[in-house]
Amino acid sequence: MRHQYLGVKQKIRLSPHHFNWKDGPNHWENFLKYKEVFGDVQLHESPKPSSHKLGFDIDSDDDDYDEEEEEEEEDNDNGDGDEEEEEEVSKVRRVGSVVELREAVVKREERRREREFRREKGEAERERKRREAEFRRERRREWSEDREEVVEWEERQLRWARRELEKRVRLERELEAERRWRKRLEEEEMEWRQRMVAMQVEHEKQMMQMHVEACQNQMQVLGIMARLLCQFLGSGTDGLGAGLGALPPQVLHHAAGLATSFSGPIQSDTSLNGKSGVILSTRRGEARNENDG
């Protein structure tokens, strides 16, 4: 659009610093709009370029220029028109060819700039895509690292939880084993106490039976000795003999009653002998009193 604006501006140029702006829309309808939007663009004055300096083919311009010269020569040969007018026309035509060459140069420059712009735009787009790809790779790498850290943290938490569970189970097993051991000890202690109590009761029963038997034996011996003494001291027909005749049943009855009524602690043989001596002395005193009477 810029080169088109320059071309139209060159066409409406009246002098180096004067332009017919109203004639611009006749050549290009968006001429004034372009000027309002982008501003005026100055024309660059340059000498008439040659085909070698421009670097592109201008055969068409040379052909037009040759045709113009031929027409001028024909006009000179025929003698029609004024020389000044012919010079003006030739100047205008030369200016038109220069303008066309300038437009070609401008178009070529615009195309070059467009190519550079497209190339720069492509490079910028490739750079943007490269940065986006690098950013995505970096994000994926960070995400994978974060994911690995999360997985490692979860595995660590799982190991800790497993260890805590194993420790708790082990403690519960130890406590259960200790409770069973204490219960077994208590049961064994109870059984031992029951056996000891049973043995003690049985021992007391045996000792009591032995003491009862010993008392019975002692009473029988005492009865026999009392009978012998009574027979030795007195005759069997007097009152002493009659009184002592009934002694053994009483003594035996007393010994049996002692055995059946025994419920307190077992006494020693010395105490039993003492009691027997008291009974015997009492009987002797009674017998003497009867004899004196």
TrEMBL record:
The UniProt annotation puts the region (Disordered) at 45-93, 262-293
Q: Where is the composition biased (Acidic residues)?
A: 58-88
Q: Which organism is it from?
A: Flemingia macrophylla
Name of this protein:
Uncharacterized protein
Keywords tagged on the record: Coiled coil
Domain of life of the source = Eukaryota
Taking the record's annotation, the residue ranges forming a coiled coil are 107-141, 168-202
Basic and acidic residues: compositionally biased ranges: 283-293
Biased composition range(s): Polar residues: 262-274
